[in-house]
Amino acid sequence: MVQTRATALLVIVDPVFFVHRARLADLSIRHRLPTMFGGGDYAKAGGLMAYGLNFPDAYRRAAGYVDRLLRGANPAELPVEQPTKFEFVVNLKTAKALGVTIPQSLLLRADQVIE
């Protein structure tokens, strides 16, 4: 990315990337590459911004599914559910390190702002 002079990076949620989220954040800051991630834990680890599924909510909802299955529900008859709760996290500490100004209108929409 440095060699091709990328101006920004989008990292999707992936177990391999998740394990290295702090390293990815450090590299993006070191190379002055604004990075948006697919989960709030990435921004909490130092990434600039994250927008994606709220995983604790999704896990709670999955537990309800498992409960129905254990009580004898037919899996073929259970509805497919879409995620309903998403979160937007902005890391102002990282923004400052990158020299990026986040508009106030965007900060007001964030579920969490890390200072």
Describe the structure.
The chain has 115 residues and is an alpha/beta fold. The protein has a domain at 9-53 and 85-114: Response regulator (Rossmann fold, 3-Layer(aba) Sandwich). 43% of the residues lie in helices and 17% in strands. A five-stranded mixed beta sheet has the order 1-2-3-4-5. Helix 3 (40-44) links the parallel strand 2 and strand 3.
* Beta-strand segment tally: 5
Distance between the termini: 27 Å
Given helix and strand content, the structural type is: alpha/beta
Low-pLDDT windows of residues: none
CATH topology tier name of the domain at 9-53 and 85-114:
Rossmann fold
- Please tell me what the overall shape is: elongated
Q: Radius of gyration in whole Å, from Cα?
A: 18 Å
Helicity, as a percent range: 40-55%
Order of helices and strands: EHHEHEHEHHE
Work out the strand percent: 15-25%
Quickly give the CATH architecture of the domain at 9-53 and 85-114. Answer: 3-Layer(aba) Sandwich
Residue-averaged pLDDT, rounded?
Answer: 93
Query: Largest sheet, if any?
Result: 5 strands, mixed
Output the number of helix runs. 6
CATH homologous superfamily heading of the domain at 9-53 and 85-114: Response regulator
State the strand order across the main sheet.
Answer: 1-2-3-4-5
